[in-house]
Every structure is written in C-alpha cells, then in structure tokens.
Design goal:
Layout: H1 13-23, H2 32-39, H3 43-49, H4 54-63, H5 72-101, E1 107-109, H6 111-114, E2 129-132, H7 138-147, E3 151-152, H8 158-163, E4 166-170, E5 176-180, E6 201-205, E7 208-212, H9 215-226, H10 237-248, H11 254-263, H12 267-281, H13 300-305, H14 318-332, H15 338-349, H16 355-373
Parallel strand pairs: 2-5
Antiparallel strand pairs: 1-2, 3-4, 4-5, 6-7
Helix pairs in contact: 1-2, 3-5, 4-5, 9-10, 9-11, 11-12, 14-15
C-alpha cells in the first residue's frame, strides 16, 4: 500500500487539511474548521500565506455560512481575482482572434482552461495567460502578438528555442503571456497514440470558442507543471487536479496519462502526484495508477527533487542542472556532453548577468549555506 508523499515539494499535514476544506463543501459543524483555525487564526494569515487560494477559501466559507476573523480580507481577495480574471479572459479572446485571423492554431493552457472547473470564476486566480502554438508557427505568432503590444521579457535565442518550452511576453499594462512552442518544461515528446492537438477540445471564453487540452493531457500538464522542481513548493496544482478529476468522469485515459508521463521522464512525479490526490484527498484515482514505481536511471534525480526544495550541497544546483540538461538533451536527440552542458548553462544563467560572475555568486552562496549548516 502506497503512503501519502511528504517532505520537499509535498504539502504538510496542515496543508492537506486546508486543501480538503477547499476541494469539497463542508457544513459549519464540520471539525475541519476548528483544525484550520489553529493554523490560520486570521483571514490575514490565509491571504499572506496562501494568496492564490484565498478566494476559493472565501467561497467555501460563504457556502458553509461561516465567518472568520478579518474575513473582509478574503472578500477583497475574491473581488481582485474576479476583476483580474475578467481582464485576462478579455486579453485571451483578443489574442485568439488575432492568431485565428492570421491562420495560426492556438491552444490555451493552465488557468484559462481550468477556470471553468472551479465553483465560480472568482475562485481560481489566473496569474498570466498561457498559449501553445505549433513550433513552426512560433515566429509568425510573435509577429501577431507584437502588433497587439506584446514583447519578450528576454531575448529569444537559438539556445532558448532549443532548450526551453515558452517565452514570457509582457505588454504596457504589465500583463504576462507565456507563448509556448512545447507543452511544458521538460515535455518534449508525446505518447505515441495522441498529440495535445489531436485530442484537444473547445470551450467558450469571452464570446469565442478556444481550444484547450483534453482531460488526460490537462491532468498530465497540471501535475507535471505543479511538481516541477522549484525553491518553494506550490499548492495550486492540487485543487486544479482535484477539480479536473472530479469533473472528468471516465474521460481520463489513465494508461495514456502514465505513458505520456513516462515518455517525458515524469513517471515518478505523476504517479506520486496521483497517490497524493488519492490517499491524501480521496480523489477518485484508480488504485493501480497511483502505485509507486522504481525510478529508472534518468528519473532518480527526479525522485530526489520531489523531497528537496532548493540546492542542498556545496555544488548547489550544478548536479540538478546536469540532470535537467540530460533530460532535455535526450528528448531533443542531442547526446549529453560537457560542451552541450556548458551551452545549456550559458542559456540558463545568461539573463542574470555574465556567466562567470553568476557562477562565482552561486559558489559563494553555496559555501555560505554549508558554513551556516555546520
């Protein structure tokens, strides 16, 4: 029997209690509220520590006819989420119309696709807009978006196109748009049976019919992106995945989901993510799909990532970057080699200044970490 994952990128016991209150409605007499009052005695604690989930918590409180100290902060958060979501849906419709007029297929990802699965539009914050285009259409799409006032935050070099999955664009209003030529970080190949485009679906947004991922691809993308190694764990992917599974019914092809994960070296992460949903939150995931599996060679570092947040050794992120480089290289048909890794590091670190200065800074940081730990 598999255990609920813990440590590193995984939620704590108090996080799980908070998530349970978000995912399904609870009556005012349910003991979950008493448990949460210990962790979050004031709504201000929720807004400061879980800003992306505060609006959903506000909705569940109203649903249960409950009050909370300083609850006005939650209402303010919900109003801001609703307003920003309306603006981003308008922007997305504008982007879709422009790309469509230019004959460019687009597929919208993440928040815009998941928003409809939540109890209300004001309960899921859209931080930015994510849209996928065919790799061959990327340059043309950049031109269309430039005409709408979007420009890249960083130069899009040959190495960026080779190793990355998307470019971040901004407009004069400070809005952000991620234009993808690949589905997600580290996602370079697809399961043999279907591609994201072949199985995609359409939904209405702001008067237009836009294309989004099928439930199977959406669940893979949600878990894989949510468990991408970072300096701080994220909880947003968990209600995203829970609402998706609960609403999809039989539309998720679990075998294809795992095949897709394995083909992108995310099999360990996705299976453990499914285990968390099933064992920790009672989401209806097939028992066999949530069983742990021995990490194959390329995924041993991935398994380590899930339980560690940030570099832990004198070498800092170097071993982790080497693993990520090997994963990318093997996916794009490049033989991993030291000179390829050097090129990868130049691309990864160049936006932060000169490469050598960046390396010196990172080494100094790691020495400080090890010294403080001693």
């Amino acid at each position: 029997m598999s255990e609920v994952p813990s440590g590193g990128m995984w939620p704590t016991a108090s996080d799980l209690a908070f998530l349970r209150a978000l995912i399904v409605p609870h009556s005012a007499s349910d003991p979950v509220w008493d448990e949460l009052r210990t962790t979050y005695p004031s709504a201000l604690d929720i807004v400061s520590r879980q800003p992306r989930l505060a609006a959903l918590f506000h909705y569940r409180l109203r649903e249960a006819d409950m009050d909370w100290p300083d609850a006005a902060a939650l209402a303010d958060s919900a109003r801001r989420v609703w307003g920003s979501n309306q603006m981003r849906m308008f922007r997305a419709a504008e982007i879709h119309a422009a790309l469509d007029a230019a004959g460019i297929e687009s597929l919208f990802l993440k928040g815009l696709a998941l928003l409809r699965l939540y109890p209300a539009e004001a309960t899921r914050l859209m931080h930015d807009i994510d849209v996928l285009v065919h790799r061959s259409d990327f340059d043309a799409a950049m031109g269309v978006l430039a005409d709408l006032g979007w420009e890249a935050s960083f130069p899009i070099t040959d190495s960026t196109r080779r190793y990355d999955h998307a470019a971040t664009l901004v407009n004069a209003a400070g809005d952000e748009l991620d234009l993808h030529w690949r589905l997600a970080p580290g996602s370079f190949s697809d399961a043999a049976s279907l591609s994201p485009w072949d199985s995609s679906q359409t939904i209405p947004i702001a008067g237009r019919s836009i294309r989004v991922l099928s439930p199977t691809y959406q669940l893979y993308h949600t878990i894989s992106h949510g468990l991408e190694w970072a300096k701080a764990a994220s909880l947003q992917w968990i209600p995203d995945a829970s609402f998706l599974v609960n609403s999809a019914g039989d539309a998720i092809d679990w075998e294809q989901l795992l095949s897709l994960a394995d083909s992108n070296h995310r099999g360990v992460a996705v299976r453990e993510g499914l285990c968390l949903l099933s064992k920790g939150l009672d989401v209806a995931v097939p028992e066999w799909a949530s069983q742990p599996t021995a990490a194959p060679g390329p995924e041993r570092r991935e398994a380590w990532f899930l339980r560690h947040v940030g570099p832990k050794s004198l070498l800092g992120a170097i071993p982790d970057r080497w693993y990520l480089y090997r994963r990318v290289a093997s996916s794009i048909g490049e033989t991993p080699a030291p000179w390829g890794f050097w090129r990868y590091l130049q691309w990864r670190w160049a936006p932060h200044g000169s490469l050598m200065e960046t390396i010196k800074t990172k080494i100094a940081d790691r020495i400080t970490v090890v010294r403080d730990r001693a």
